[in-house]
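[Meeting: bench + compute handoff]

Bench side (C.D.) handed over the final construct sequence. Compute side (W.E.) agreed to return the predicted structure before the next meeting so the bench team could plan truncations. Sequence as handed over:
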Amino acid sequence: MMTAPSVPLDTQLCCDNDLPGDDALRVVALDLLHSNGYTALRRLRCEVTEGVVIVHGVVPTYYLKQLVQTIVRRVDGIQGVMNLVEVQDAEYTDVTACES
């Protein structure tokens, strides 16, 4: 069973923690990727440099690769996204969202 994202995809999110700049953006971006319900996105890593998020990792579908960009672009302060996520379906058996 798929679970809906915890925050609607058209909602702009901002950083309200005490971390400085890029670190705060990275924390929020990772939190969104890891909490959206898709197990494959929990395995992703990201870094932020001067407001640009660079996302690394592997997902089983092109849909999820595109979803990564949609999710991290919602963070207020993100200037751009470099999506270095690879699509490799052979390594994954779980292409669905987590059950709740």
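W.E. noted at the follow-up: Confidence is low (pLDDT under 50) at residues 1-13, 15-19. C.D. will use this when planning the next construct.
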